[in-house]
Design a protein that fits this description.
This protein is mainly alpha-helical. It has 3 helices and 2 strands; from the N terminus they run ββααα. It has a two-stranded antiparallel ribbon with strand order 1-2.
Length: 105
């Protein structure tokens, strides 16, 4: 299953998307940071939604994109991939053990 989206749940393809905050007009502002890149496209929420809707305990996983790896300005933010994988593993583990989860098993 795809772990990234296009309109929502995307990984950034340039540092212009890596700002920590947004101003009153919802424009990027503040310092550039890897955390800003991770939050910007909503990739974690997208991945969690995909996993939640599968509801099969035997789902192996999702494909985590590496699209921005090819942009030289983004190479310093590659830890986003590791953070996303870590957070998705935690979420999938919780889905598998929580009593209210349809994918418990």
């Amino acid at each position: 299953m795809p772990g990234t989206g296009y309109a929502w749940g995307w990984l950034p393809n340039g540092e212009a998307f890596c700002h920590e905050d947004r101003d009153e007009n919802n424009n990027p502002s503040g310092e550039l940071s890897t955390q800003g890149c991770y939050k910007e496209g909503g990739v974690l929420g997208f991945g969690q939604t995909i996993v939640s809707r599968l509801t099969f305990p035997n789902t192996l996983g999702i494909a985590i994109g590496n699209e921005f790896e090819h942009n030289p300005g983004m190479q310093q933010h590659i830890p986003i991939i590791k953070a996303y994988a870590r957070d998705m593993k935690k979420f999938m583990s919780e889905c598998n053990t929580h009593d209210d989860s349809p994918s418990k098993g």
